[in-house]
Design a protein that fits this description.
The chain is built from five helices and seven strands. By secondary structure, it is α+β, with helices and mostly antiparallel strands.
Length: about 180
């Protein structure tokens, strides 16, 4: 009977003891060089913005080789990186209220022109907006991201958004079922 009680307590607390949050996991990659399509493997060293999120998510939720769509609109539709946050799906730079963002939110940086073959993520003032970059919100108006042409670094959210840019936000609900 004692063994069952110990095993039950282990199961009850194990997700808190062994799990990391996605931000802490992403911080492990600070300074890694940017490489388009990079997933930090021998064949593909370096990281791009989706590679950083892929590795941090896999580590945080203890899921190996999570398959994420590489196309931002498909990624949002798949809900693998959370669900769109009401009121934060297509917000222009000057209208962003960072108090509504939570640590670990996935930020899609948007521009009003197509990037590749992707579909628009938002329609703002009758214009289609497309994702060009992704990052993870860490708090205090900052994101961790693999910045194109540089490395994994921390930036002010507002500095990454271009003059005519916007954001789209998804949030992963942290429940025991997805850890």
């Amino acid at each position: 009977m004692k063994i069952y009680k110990i095993w039950f307590l282990f199961l009850l607390f194990s997700s808190q003891i062994f799990s990391y949050d996605i931000v802490n996991c992403a911080m492990d990659y600070l300074g890694v060089e940017y490489k388009w399509g990079g997933r930090l493997t021998r064949k593909n060293p370096g990281l791009d913005c989706l590679g950083l999120i892929f590795l941090a998510y896999s580590k945080a939720y203890r899921k190996s080789w999570v398959l994420l769509p590489v196309n931002p609109s498909e990624l949002v539709k798949s809900k693998k990186l959370g669900i769109p946050v009401e009121g934060l799906n297509g917000v222009l730079k000057e209208e962003i209220d960072t108090s509504r963002l939570k640590r670990g939110d996935i930020i899609y940086f948007l521009v009003p022109y197509p990037i590749g073959n992707d579909k628009p993520l938002a329609k703002i003032e009758d214009k289609d907006y497309y994702a060009w970059h992704l990052g993870i919100y860490i708090g205090n108006g900052e994101v961790i991201n693999a910045y194109p042409g540089d490395k994994v670094r921390i930036d002010k959210l507002i500095d990454i958004i271009g003059e005519d840019g916007a954001i789209f936000v998804t949030r992963i609900e942290q429940t025991p079922s997805n850890r």
